[in-house]
Design brief:
The protein is of the alpha/beta class. 56% of the residues lie in helices and 10% in strands.
């Protein structure tokens, strides 16, 4: 067995698949043979690190459960919806997550709240953070089911754990007393463990009335709203705009 095959075998045994693939390619590229050992070895390391980072990102994104692919590179500043671009740039660093602060994205239906929330979530994943995305009404249904099958502690643990918990369309769907208590438990725990991102059609001033118990409402909002950044989106529904464009014979 020649040296190249031996090296490839050992790299694969060490689960360094990307490095093994890059090493094999190096053997077929004459120009790379002229590089120093350190330079060639650096290229191998870069291939392995890049592959592992890509696999980690894919795993984080899959686990997060985003409803759509969204990235700030695709953000169209021409339809900025009244947003301050400098604030978007600052928030996209995700330092607010590191500091365990919250973010509220508000605005009427169809203006891109879910897309923007997903973009922040994807950016957090790129930075190696764990994210969990939930449509709020679906989460309320899961809470009700978890009460019936005695899995509520397990569900709550999954809401405590990620660096960023996204609750989309807050205010849509009826909130039971149990769901309200879970939100309080989650908001209280996440003050120490991570951040919340909420999107809503309702102004935050109206959130108090969404809770069945005013005391719990006070407690949740005190933990969420008072340490939150706020993005207010404006404009007409993008779905309406696209619909008109599709019907335009021109």
């Amino acid at each position: 067995m020649n040296t190249t095959i031996q090296n490839l075998t050992k790299l694969r045994e060490l689960h360094l698949g990307a490095m093994a693939a890059a090493y094999g390619l190096q053997q077929d590229q004459v120009n790379l043979q002229k590089l120093s050992f350190d330079d060639r070895f650096g290229l191998l390391l870069e291939s392995e690190v890049s592959s592992r980072n890509s696999r980690k990102l894919n795993r984080l994104v899959k686990t997060a459960g985003f409803p759509e692919v969204a990235a700030f590179e695709d953000y169209d500043t021409r339809t900025s919806r009244g947003l301050d671009q400098s604030m978007i740039s600052t928030l996209s660093s995700c330092n607010w997550i590191t500091r365990k602060q919250n973010l509220m994205i508000l605005g009427p239906t169809g203006v891109g709240k879910t897309w923007l929330a997903s973009a922040f979530g994807h950016q957090a994943c790129r930075l190696g953070m764990t994210v969990s995305f939930h449509v709020t009404s679906d989460l309320f249904d899961r809470i009700g089911q978890a009460v019936l099958d005695a899995s509520l502690p397990k569900l709550k643990a999954t809401l405590y754990k990620p660096n960023l918990l996204i609750l989309d369309d807050f205010g849509i769907g009826e909130m039971s007393p149990t769901a309200a208590q879970v939100l309080l438990d989650v908001a209280d725990r996440r003050m120490r463990t991570g951040s919340l991102l909420l999107t809503s059609q309702y102004p935050s001033e109206n959130w108090h009335g969404l809770f069945p118990d005013p005391t719990i409402a006070d407690a949740v909002l005190d933990r969420v709203v008072h340490q939150a950044h706020r993005l207010q989106l404006k404009g007409e529904s993008m779905r309406k705009i696209r619909g008109r464009a599709a019907l335009d014979p021109a």
